[in-house]
Each structure stands twice: as structure tokens, then as C-alpha cells.
Design a protein that fits this description.
Elements (H helix, E strand, L loop, with lengths): L8 H23 L10 H8 L3 H14 L3 H21 L1 H18 L1 H5 L2 H17 L1 H27 L1
Helix pairs in contact: 2-3, 4-5
Length: 163
């Protein structure tokens, strides 16, 4: 068997660059957006750890999907990915200083004072409660609880009849 012909320096450089590109694309995929086969997130862990959390999380996610600010949040996320990520890579100290100024402005303006009004909470509460009660999981829990109570009441009435 003969040995393969030696590579020229330009071919070795191109091969090295291709290997680096492949390695970086794989590590970027692992560090970037979560894929379907990646580790579960905090919400997935909460859904499995707490029995009623899945109903509450699903209800809140459905409410947020219909909320008028949802599209603003999606737009803000794309702006962050497009503009702030490169700025953070080039000038991280300036980005931290800007975040401190923005945080000070938020603390000074105290938006929680005008955002958390009782009428806002009274409008959100019944909608959230009716959504939770209408979910299939809650209905099945209620049906299971009623099914457990029926035999107990039947045995109590039967023992009262025999006495």
C-alpha cells in the first residue's frame, strides 16, 4: 500500500479551518438555544417535581401567549440577540455600566408602585382561577375525589341500614 500524497500547506490550512468550523458549530449549538434532546430546563423540573405546578405553569404560559406584551417580549429578545450580544462581546464593561444606569433609573422611578394596583390584580385573579379550574387535570382530580367519596358514603348508609 502506498501512502497518501502529502498535503500542501494551503490544503492543510483549509482542512484545519474546516475542523475548527465544525468544532465551533457543535460547541455553539450546545451552548446556544436548547434543543429537544438537551437537559431539561427549570420549568420542566418544576413540572415533574411539584404535582400541581404543571397546571399552573401551563395556565400562565397560555395567558402569556395571549397577552399584548408577549410580542414586545419576543421583539426585545431578538433585539438583544442582534445588537446587545455583539456589543457585550466587544465592550463588556460599557454594557455593565449601562445596566447599572438602567437599574438605577428603574429603582428611582419605582414602577412597582404604579404597576401593581389592586384593580390589576383583581382583573387577573378570576381569569387565572377559572383557567385553572377549567383544565383537564383539575377536573380529573375532582372526579377522582368524588369517586373516592361515593363508596365511603355508600358503606356508611349500608351500615346505618343494618343497625
Amino acid at each position: 500500500m502506498s501512502a497518501p500524497p502529502p498535503l500542501t500547506p494551503a490544503e492543510r490550512l483549509a482542512l484545519s479551518r474546516e475542523r475548527l468550523r465544525i468544532a465551533l458549530s457543535h460547541s455553539g449549538a450546545r451552548a446556544g438555544v436548547r434543543s429537544a434532546t438537551s437537559a431539561p430546563g427549570l420549568l420542566d423540573i418544576l413540572k415533574t417535581a411539584l404535582p400541581g405546578a404543571s397546571v399552573l405553569i401551563d395556565t400562565l404560559s397560555q395567558w402569556w401567549a395571549r397577552h399584548p406584551l408577549h410580542s414586545s417580549g419576543v421583539l426585545a429578545g431578538s433585539v438583544v440577540q442582534t445588537f446587545l450580544r455583539p456589543a457585550a462581546q466587544r465592550h463588556p464593561v460599557a454594557l455593565v455600566a449601562g445596566a447599572m444606569v438602567l437599574g438605577a433609573a428603574l429603582a428611582f422611578s419605582r414602577p412597582w408602585r404604579w404597576a401593581l394596583k389592586p384593580h390589576l390584580l383583581s382583573a387577573l385573579g378570576p381569569a387565572l382561577l377559572s383557567s385553572v379550574l377549567a383544565s383537564a387535570a383539575v377536573q380529573s382530580w375532582i372526579a377522582a375525589a368524588l369517586a373516592k367519596e361515593e363508596p365511603a358514603s355508600d358503606t356508611a348508609s349500608n351500615s346505618a341500614r343494618t343497625n
